[in-house]
Each structure stands twice: as structure tokens, then as C-alpha cells.
Amino acid sequence: DLTPNESWTNSTTFNFTATDTDGGGNINLSSAAAYFQRGSETTRFNMSCSNGGVSGTSVNFTCTIGMWYFDQAGSWTIYVNVSDNNQETGTNSSESFTYISLPAMVMSPTALGWTGVGLASVDTAANNPITINNTGNAVNLNINVTSLDLQGNQTTSQHIFAENFTVKNAVGGCGAGTTMVNDTSTNVTSAILQSGNNTLDNNDETSGQEQTFFCLRGVPQDISAQEYSSVPLGAWTLQIIT
């Protein structure tokens, strides 16, 4: 089995032996190649496997192939081939390995803020959405947010409640977002995180990303103008759920 390296490649090295009845010296040492294959997934390969020299009728080859963090989990076939100087080619695809499913993510930014909010403010978006990068290869990941009431920094008996906030995977969707529940892990029903190459930076499933937009629907009408913070009652958390 092989486990992905988060946000990077995981290279594995293996050996195979080629035998030629005409003698190992008849094997074309530069022709050895190896491939990892799985359905419609991008094939990972090495076209320049090294060799340990001729030994009788055989040559031992060493190949290193890297798997990306977003390559699909499941069974991958190991396919190798090598040719001889008579243009005859030998192949083998009898071995396979399992690429493990890795749930992992990195999000940015890691803090939320709202500016210019007053008693009359309605449906105010946070200063920035949170972009979640799937840094593993697990798919169909749910996104849950745990929100806590915000407490006034000066008048500590006043709060903006978690229920005043909604979260959605699209801008301008305050009314259709998922309403938060105080100190409760709540599934953002509009958001599903898929795997993909984060460097494409498409901010959607094609690049293994999901954006979450946080909206303040309104504030209690009996609170005063001051800063409200999550520090006293606890930080909000965002997590992926398999």
C-alpha cells in the first residue's frame, strides 16, 4: 500500500527482472519502462529505469515513480516493459498496489471579520470567503462549521449570536445559506470538497477547492456599538467530514 503525501508527491521505488533466452546482453538496457495505471486516471510513469548490470540471462531494473496527492485512491496496476536488441518486447502487469485515501485540507484565511456593521445592517458578507484546499485525495468530503456566539469586548453581557450567521458555497447567497447553531458542528449543505490539483486555483471542484462565504444576516437590536469577538467563548472551527 502507498499513502499520499499531503500537497506533494510520494515516490516509490521497486525492482523487476527481465530474462532473455539469448542472454542478458541481448536486452536493451535503455528500453525499460514502468507505469502505474488506473482506469481513466492520469498514468504515472518512468521511461528511464536504471539497471544493475547483466547477470547471465537476466537484468535487474530499478524504477522510481511518483504519485501525486490528488491521484485517485484505490487499486493501481503496475505495468512494466522492456525490449531486446531483436526488437522483441516483454511486458508484465500482474502486480498492483493500493493507493490509500487521505482526507486532508488547508484553508485560507484562518480568520473572519466584518466591518461597518450597524443595527440596520442586513446580509453583510465577511470581508473574505474562506478557500478550502483538498490537500489529499479523499473525495465527497462534507464541510462542517462550528460557530460560537460573539461577545462584546466592552459590554460583555451583549452578544451577536451564532444563529445570526449563515454559510454557503456561493457569494450573495445569504438567504439560502446554512444557519449556524451555537457550539454545534453544522453541515454546510451547499458545499462538497472534491480532490484535485490545487495549483490550478479554479476555486471549485476542478482544482480540489471549495469556497465558503460567511454572511451576517443582522444583529440583535438591543446591543451597543463595540467590537464583538470569538475570543471569550471560543474560536470557530471548520472541518472536513468523510
Set down the secondary structure blueprint.
Blueprint: E1 9-19, E2 33-37, E3 44-46, E4 50-55, E5 58-68, E6 74-83, E7 89-99, E8 105-108, E9 124-125, E10 130-134, E11 141-146, E12 150-152, E13 159-160, E14 165-168, E15 178-179, E16 186-193, E17 209-216, E18 228-229, E19 237-241
Antiparallel strand pairs: 1-5, 2-3, 2-6, 4-5, 6-7, 8-10, 9-17, 10-17, 11-16, 11-19, 12-13, 12-18, 14-15, 14-17
Report on the architecture of this protein.
- With 242 residues, the protein is mainly β.
- The chain folds into two domains: 9-99; 105-241, Sandwich (Immunoglobulin-like), CATH 2.60.40.
- 0% of the residues lie in helices and 45% in strands.
- It contains no helices and 19 strands.
- The chain has strands at 9-19, 33-37, 44-46, 50-55, 58-68, 74-83, 89-99, 105-108, 124-125, 130-134, 141-146, 150-152, 159-160, 165-168, 178-179, 186-193, 209-216, 228-229, 237-241.
- The strands form five sheets. Strands 8, 9, 10, 14, 15 and 17 form a six-stranded antiparallel β-sheet that branches. A four-stranded antiparallel β-sheet has the order 3-2-6-7, with no helix packed on it.
- β2 (33-37) and β3 (44-46) form a beta hairpin.
- The chain is rod-shaped and about 90 Å long.
- The protein starts with 8 loop residues before the first strand and ends with a strand.
